[in-house]
Amino acid sequence: MAPPPEILARDADDPLGRLRERFHLPDGLIYLDGNSLGPAPLSVFDELQKAIAGEWAGDLIASWNKAGWFALPQTLGARLAPLIGAGADEVLVCDTVSINLFKCLHAALALRPERHAIVAEQAGFPTDLYIASGVGSTRSDLALRLQGRDGDTLEELIDGDTAVVLVNHVDYRTSALRDMAALTARAHQAGALILWDLCHSAGVMPIALDECGADFAVGCSYKYLNGGPGAPGFLHVARGHHGGLSQPLTGWWSHADPFAFSPDYVAAPGIAAMLTGTQPILSMRAIVAALDAFDGVDMAAVRAKSMALTELFIALVEERCAGAELELAAPREATRRGSQVSFRHEQGYAVMQALIARGVVGDFRAPDILRFGFAPLYIGFADVWNAVEVLRNVLETQAWRDFAYARRSGVT
Ligand SMILES: Cc1ncc(COP(=O)(O)O)c(C=O)c1O
Q: 196 - beta bridge partners?
């Protein structure tokens, strides 16, 4: 069934509708997995060609200076900063989210040496938990207190011994969105610092790190920022903490004078102290072009459309797939949810494989979560309608029962 006129009218009236032209999206595909890997922005093809043919092949080593390769963590950080509400000198694009978490947690602990606890979420993205445990294993006096294991809420776990609270802005499974201002204030009230993981919010909603007084943040550039598979992450440190930043991965890129090649380590002033070593320049160049896709984009309008898309998806699924044993796993209230909608289904993996085979691409998270991401830069209201139509068909015909859909791939 084709989308009704009122749905088509919403796309026709959408002020962000033309942004889809900035991306390469395969014909016939409804791509609802930008919460995992964003599609290729068209500008990336030229940018990489320039970086490979002109700079690497042509200018070779001169490009570290001439093309600004060495300064890319800072220059890209400055370009990304407005999207997360930070100052240009407060953000670096470098390394992976996991490595940046490690460095930021250590830097936060060094700023609160008299305190002995990290507060985090048991159900947070596993790398956050694993890295927090890894940091804990380097110090015998450090405790990890987890929401979901040691208490029901983060707030009740924060006390005078808490050095840092590590928290996901948007939950990767359920899409629950935290109140950044309130939780940051709660941490500060107890004298603790806070480190936000923005992987599932950067690029899809306005974020106000500085306004909220956040201390640290990390995030990735391959989801809603569309930087490409394995693109480096970013880290943020509030300016007030820049003097005397200390982290243990003291590679030469974090030295005050890296080309002095001194045997003695002296940390760079400012946020450069959070760097480590040589960065993947070609991947960083893809991010340069990916950020161009945000030029002139009003993030408040992005958020408004994101809420409208997810609202429509939930309403249509509940209306048209009623009785299909789908259970909403995302918050019902749009203001409390990210740009993803999650539903539980006992056979969620097979259902998602059947959807993908029919051109509706989302993903699956164990044990039973179907995730659908709605990136307002390239997803429209008719896409939502059509995706629900395919879902209805898969559930009604039980097409997911085909054995082929039960076979698990490594990446789900
Ligand atoms: C919330 C969150 N944090 C961290 C990561 C992963 O970090 P890394 O780039 O180190 O693999 C992800 C990846 O999906 C994520 O969703």
A: 167, 217
172 CB near ligand 1 (under 6 Å): yes
Tell me the per-residue pLDDT of 95-118, one tens digit each, with 9 for 90 and over. Answer: 999 999 999 999 999 999 999 999
Q: Quote the longest CA-to-CA distance of the chain.
A: 70
Q: What's the pTM?
A: 0.97
User: Which tokens is 123 given?
Assistant: 């159900």
From the list 22, 173, 223, 305, the catalytic residue is 223
Beta bridge partners of 177: 170
Residue 137 pLDDT class (50, 70, 90 cuts): very high
Q: Is 223 an annotated catalytic residue?
A: yes
Answer yes or no: is pLDDT of 411 > 90: no
125 in contact with ligand 1, CB cutoff 6 A: yes
CATH 3.90.1150.10 fits 5-31+298-406, yes or no: yes
Domain residue spans of the chain = 5-31+298-406, 47-292
The top-level CATH class assigned to 47-292 is: alpha beta
Residue 257 backbone dihedrals phi, psi, to 5 degrees: -140, 75
pLDDT in tens, 321-374: 988 889 999 999 999 999 999 999 999 999 999 999 999 999 999 999 999 999
Q: Ligand 1: which residue has its CA nearest to atom 8?
A: 97
**Residue 371 phi, psi (nearest 5):** -110, 135
Number of Cβ atoms within 10 Å of the Cβ of 266: 13
Buried b (16+ CB within 10 A) or exposed e, 137-151: eeeeebebbbbeeee
